Amino acid sequence: MNNFVIFLSILSICLCLQVQVQVDEADLVDKNELNRLFKINYDGQVYSGYLKANNEGTAQFHYMFYPAPVDALKKPVILWLNGGPGCSSLQGAFNENGPFVFKAGTAEFEMNQYSWTNFANMLYIESPITVGFSYGPQGEQSDESTAKYNINALVDFFSRFTEYKKLPFFISGESYAGIYIPTLANEIIDYNVGKPTDSLINLQGLAIGNGCTDPTECTEQADPFQIHVYKFYGRHNFISEELYEKILAVQNECYGVKDGKCKELADKVEVEVSGTKAAHIKFNPYNIYGYCFTYTPEGSKMSQKFSGMRSLNEESDIPPCADVQGLYHYLKSAEIRTLLKIRQESAEWSICSRTLGNYQVNPKGSYYLYQKILKNQIRILKFSGDVDAVVPLTGTMFWIDKLQKELYLTTLKPWRPWFIHAQREVDPDQNAGYVMDLDGLTLLTIRNAGHMVPLDKREESEIFMQKFIKGELFP
């Protein structure tokens, strides 16, 4: 009888292992087909499939997962989320920090020597409903519902890839992910309460690039008179000194005001920065010194909202000046849908969802969550490209100063430059930006990087992200 019980136990374990392999393998992308269609030579594994984002399983979030090619189970897992709200995280995978990325302004892939898969297992989730290939019940969505969907999808991921659950887990992303990431962290903190050790999500840190945070940044009330954007333009001499002084004089009374002299000043900023609409001057708010790409596929529309975040009420699916040629070339292809195991329920891919108009933005932003996150010993890195005018460094420094004063955060290491090694032996180390370390939170700027830091500065991004996950501070 004892032998029979042992036999049944072994059989049960084998069946469980077999089920796990089948689940994983079902989403494994054919490497030969991937290399043929993408015209690359990638030897690592790629998974593409769907995660259950609600209890009923009617909401399904598309994901792509790139295990680190070397020693995957000795490296952390990083979830990457793009923002919008409503823009696809595949932009991060294929334009920013994935193992193969598009050459600028083309539909041609190249290998990314600074891929974050060099030091981590990279997970990308398209969130919320109707974003990218993700689908589910139509209706009102919000910052709160997105956080619920994201925690469900994450739990589903770790139930399938159980061997990765014990590893250190980090969440990173940019732009409106400055809302998605802290709200998801809040859900994880609550999820972990009372769970046994082997069931915890091992969240260690958040790394947020040019992220919406404070109510004065990306909320409906902040939109009419974007004081942090205007201060950014003034400091960079993109508007006249006369206009800048007028803005500073009325900044408090104009917050949230949509008409009168406040609207006149806001309109004047747009004219001085990028000309009249009739002039058709191309200006890239995501990188004020960068190139403005204008490729727009048939059936798509590029936003003309140059003063700040993409409006949910616009019909456009492409943010202003975004480099989307490669993304649309491949992700609208029937062959690529088959390769990535995309279901019929998924709509045709676009970089930003046009059906997110009922999305409810929390007027509190995500600032209110930082005290709880820091109290739970979750480290935070705020990295900011210093030539982004959409969620500019001026706003980030404003609320970090406010947070430090409110929470009495100790300054561990003051504001200072950080460096990358020179490209040539004869050169000294090169200034890569500036960094300041508080108790639990680091602010790091990246020189000459825009809104999408890992796109503009890949080497610098690999350096600072590796240091962050190791818990190391810059000298």
Shape: globular
Helix content, binned percent: 25-40%
The helix-and-strand class reads alpha/beta
Distance between the termini: 65 Å
What does the average pLDDT come to?
92
Strand order of the largest sheet: 1-2-6-3-7-8-9-12-11-10
The poorly predicted ranges are 4-23
Number of strands: 12
Q: What string, H for helix and E for strand, traces the elements in order?
A: HHEEEHEEEHEHEHHHHHHHEHEEEHH
> With helices defined by DSSP (H or I, 4 residues minimum), what is the helix count?
15
| Main sheet specs | 10 strands, mixed
**Radius of gyration in whole Å, from Cα?**
23 Å
Strand content: 15-25%
Pfam families: Peptidase_S10
Keywords: Carboxypeptidase, Hydrolase, Protease, Signal
Protein name: Carboxypeptidase
Signal peptide: 1-16
Q: Quick summary of this structure?
A:
This protein is an alpha/beta fold.
What does this structure look like?
Pfam families: Peptidase_S10 (PF00450). It comes from Paramecium pentaurelia. The radius of gyration is 23 Å and the shape is globular. A hairpin with a 7-residue loop joins β1 and β2. The longest helix has 25 residues, at 2-26. It has 15 helices and twelve strands. The protein has a domain at 217-339. The strands form two sheets. Strands 1-2-6-3-7-8-9-12-11-10 form a ten-stranded mixed beta sheet, sandwiched between helices. Strands 4-5 form a two-stranded antiparallel sheet. It is an alpha/beta fold and 475 residues long. α7 runs antiparallel to α8 (241-254).
